[in-house]
Amino acid sequence: MNSASLVELFSSIQGEGPHVGRRQAFLRFHGCNLQCAYCDTVEPASPPHCRVEEEPGSGIFRELPNPLPLGAVMEILRRWRDSYPGLHHSLSLTGGEPLLHGDTLIRWLPELRTIFPLYLETNGTLPETLAEVVDHLDFISMDIKLPSASGSPPLWDRHRRFLEVALQRNLFVKLIVAPDTPSEEITVACLLVSGVEPSIPLILQPVTRNGRSAVPGELLLRFQEQAARFLADVRVIPQTHVFLNLL
Questions:
Q1: pLDDT score of 33 more than 60
Q2: Please, are residues 159 and 144 in contact by the beta-carbon 8 Å criterion?
Q3: Neighbours of 199 (CB within 10 A)
Q4: DSSP readout, 169-203?
Q5: Which of 32, 179, 191, 232 could form a disulfide with 97 if both were Cys (CB 3.0 to 4.6 A apart)?
Q6: Which domains are assigned to the chain?
Q7: In this structure, what are the phi and psi dihedrals at residue 62, rounded to the nearest 5 degrees?
Q8: Tens-place pLDDT, residues 64-86
Q9: Which residues, 6 or more positions from 160, have their beta carbon under 8 angstroms from its beta carbon?
């Protein structure tokens, strides 16, 4: 638990959701329990090395052998915090699916949180693991996987139980929508969220293809109108880091 196989550690802007544009350090864990059709993360099952950015935003990386000790990660993050004060809003725990590494997170999160606030990016399907670490998190970005867009089977019950735990933190929900997303799925997802707490912000994120939104603007407006019948805060936000050619 003092070491973990990681994919990369780098600094960039948050390109999705209500915190878009904020600078974050990103710690990417490997592996995922889903295989979504639109996933933009391709990685080996167990990476032999972790890519670490030399300086925040430099785009210059070195490779460190996995598994990487917690102490090495802490040393890099402390240096970034101290050398670039005020630059980073938080540390994004991303993947893959970070909650697959529950044993590691239980050990690491209290230490990492002494450097930066912690921001979890998750597919929202592992509520039991979330319950073990939620007290150490500050922000949760939760996907709800619509079966038509992700290619995954319906996960409504797992998402509902995840929401009930995640509600303890600063939480928003993200729906990835495609041109062929059925309106019925959006209704089911919105009823699920509103049944837990109707004030949870909902982000409609269009699938990106070739650096552009694959969903026509007029359709995104209709999706927003539909979701707004159930939820108080519905926003349309694309993947802005893709447009800016950033990690």
A1: yes
A2: yes
A3: 9
A4: SEEEEEEEE-TT--HHHHHHHHHHHHHH-TTS-EE
A5: 32
A6: 3-243 (3.20.20.70)
A7: -125, 160
A8: 999 999 999 999 999 999 999 99
A9: 192, 195, 196
